[in-house]
Amino acid sequence: MNNNFPKDFLWGGAIAANQAEGAAFEDGKGLSISDMMTAGSINKPRMFTLSLKEDTYYPAHTAIDFYHRYKEDIAMFAEMGFKIFRLSIAWSRIFPNGDDTEPNEAGLKFYENVFKELRKYDIEPLVTLSHFDIPMAIMNKYNGFHNRKTIDLFVRYAETVMNRYKDLVKYWLTFNEINVGVLPTGNLVLGIKPEQDGEVFDSPNNPDNPQVRFQALHNMFVASAKTVVLGHSINPNFLIGNMIAHFTMYPLTCKPEDILLTKEKDLMFNKFCGDVQAKGFYPFYALDYFDKNGIQIEFGPEDEEILKAGTVDMYTFSYYMSFCVSGDSGVEMTLGNLLGGAKNPYLKASEWGWQVDPEGLAYTLYDLYDRYQLPLMIVENGLGAVDNFNEDGEIVDDYRIEYLIDHIQSMNRALNQGVNLIGYTMWGPIDIISGGTGEMKKRYGFIYVDRDNEGNGTLNRIKKKSFEWYKKVIKSNGENL
Ligand code: P53
């Protein structure tokens, strides 16, 4: 197939503050929920502790030390030819106590330096305002987004950074993977305070209360919409997007029950939040879901108007995998730390059980563009794998290159059909801490970071084989894979 990537296509990579920066206690930063998460593995869940425990390793506290090494890292992204780089601002660097009267200048200065460094190389920053790191102070004082006060705190934070960086940053995202809040395991990312320490996902210690969770999610929608309106008033050229974790779903069989079930699950998990944020109102199936589950969402007097006014300019999403849906119990299931489904007999899975499905990306792009007709950006995609050095001291990560080639070809196919896809930021261009498991061993990068699961290592950066490969891809604008 011809190369269909537009001339100005935004090639790049994506990270998040809590998985990369480290420096958790530096320059006045306050603790965030991600600072309270321990390291796990594929079969050992990450724990969330309400206070920091001695003799416990919290990977976010050091992460890969991007806070001190950003210049070196950005120089390597520039060498690969990045046009865009997605990163997040740690809210707790700007408002360490959530409700401080003044923002923390040291935190503001740090991101200003980072954005200027990116601009030096003509790399557009794409900034996520909140990536799974609500300040602990806000969880403790206000129970996170369950309290409407947190809407104001977030909007104030957004206003502070959007004003400060209005000439440095054009692309913004409000909340990372907001639809994680639809899951019973999504309480933490909404800032809802658990009663006791427990697993980050699926904690039996802390039962889920859907009434509280969906109210918090509603408040988050309102905060997001207000931020969109505010952002446009600060700089009309801002492009502000939402961000959805898209877990593409297929019926396991052509049995009508499987097909219907797939549709219902897809709507409630993949489409609900995007519908609110892109169309500006609650979709019928969500209202029905609330009805059936006895959930009552309390709207503030202006919420309906705010949601309508604050629809996003672009729709962005993460895409890692697909799985199947079946009405039968007893079918074989996939692994996956957040949400799993029935195994697809036609797909292989990563070492962490995530089913690799490049065609599913084109399928998803058709689906989303047809639904929203907004510019789309894939802001996370990639393969988490164990990397080993060969005798020559090199990492020959052909498996990663193959994964990315297949997904880029799928993007090309969707572009060929006329989908308005404007950019691609693969996840973790430099190895970072895994969000799901807290491991270092689950690596996504073109750049290896010398650090292990226990926090040992020099933190030195080493190029993998895929580094030169991605450079070539960007240089040829997706032609030369
Ligand atoms: P890791 C679970 C499943 C799919 C995507 O995930 C997820 C999660 C939550 O971790 O989140 C996104 O590192 C998230 C990133 C995360 C990335 O996926 O578990 O936005 O923070 O690192 C990959 O392999």
Automatic annotation (TrEMBL):
It holds the Pfam family Glyco_hydro_1. It comes from the Bacteria. InterPro entries: GH (IPR017853), GH_1_N_CS (IPR033132), Glyco_hydro_1 (IPR001360). One of its GO terms (biological process) is carbohydrate catabolic process. Signal peptide: none annotated. One of its GO terms (cellular component) is cytosol. This is Amygdalase.
